[in-house]
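Subject: Interface between my chains keeps coming out wrong

I've been trying for a while to get a sensible model of this assembly. When I model each chain on its own everything looks fine, but I need the whole thing in one frame so I can look at the contacts. Pasting all components below, labels as-is. Any help appreciated, I'm running out of ideas.
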Amino acid sequence: MERGVGARVARHPGRGNPGGILDTMAFPQTRLRRLRATRQLRGLIRETSLEPADLVYPMFVAHGIDRREPIAAMPGIDRLSIAHAVSEAGEALSLGIPAVLLFGLPAAKDEEGSGAWDEEGIVQLATRAIKEAHPELIVITDVCLCEYTSHGHCGVVRSDGTVDNDATLELLSRTAISQARAGADVVAPSDMMDGRVGAIRGALDEDGLCETPILAYSAKFASAFYGPFREAADSAPAFGDRRSYQMDPANGGEALREARLDTEEGADIVMVKPALPYLDLVRQIKDQTGMPVGAYNVSGEYAMVKAAAGAGYLDEQATVLEVLTSIRRAGADIIITYHAKDAARWLR
Ligand SMILES: [Zn+2]
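Reply #2:
Try treating it as a single job with all components included. I did that and got this:
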């Protein structure tokens, strides 16, 4: 580089084209440590914010229990009765967390997953109870069938064991309508069937629910990080796996296509799941769609931090706040995380 150019610009800091010329300035004129010297200076130039208002707290609500049932692989997270879910939702709200995401464990499962759209189903009952107690809390409901089907797949299974995409769309639409009618503020399809955002949007609109937003799990990968969730939601597939509908972790370009398609079909928010192994896609989807982007910091990501912190290998608070800040820095507007309540307390 030409030392003269750098020195001239340094004497006239307001002049010229900073993006072009200032990049040629190097040590000793440029010392990035100057702005790291104090907490106040670091705060002044911090590029990324993390607030309780960015977080969504996921909850597992179970039919027919009257106490909390701890989930072994997710210390601090329990399966909840409706009454416990109401109080836990209130706790989240009081910590400044604006939204909860509900997953249901039904009384019974069947081939079709009919508990998913039952007007008296577990998520519908919990939604009504939470909205009645905390009207200002945003209730997001998971739209999928795997928690309700006897085989544990996210759609209708044909006799040859494959999942029938188009037959599933009808059932997902019914589920979304029943949840919205129960008071869900946002519905969140997580099944990864083709065309489900458009089908759900059309069904909601036809039912007069045109103001209910859709948070689409647009790029949901077939991930090993879902292990603890499957214990929590009792939703492991009885046979096979979900790779014929969830995405291949190797595919980034395809994730962009999924996000674009969901946007065209009427999604209001697009989401990447899991978060940490896919931060590149959070950034690319944010940049390329301009949509509000969610990222799901999943059960396995939570379990890793909890296990390492429990063993004394990591400082839990510092680790969690770094993880969540990184997800925000990558471009996520919204983070769904089991750490939400702890993080909100630490951020106060
Ligand atoms: Zn599912």
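Reply #3:
Confirming on my end. The pocket of zinc ion is lined by residues 144, 146, 154, 190-191 (CB under 6 Å).
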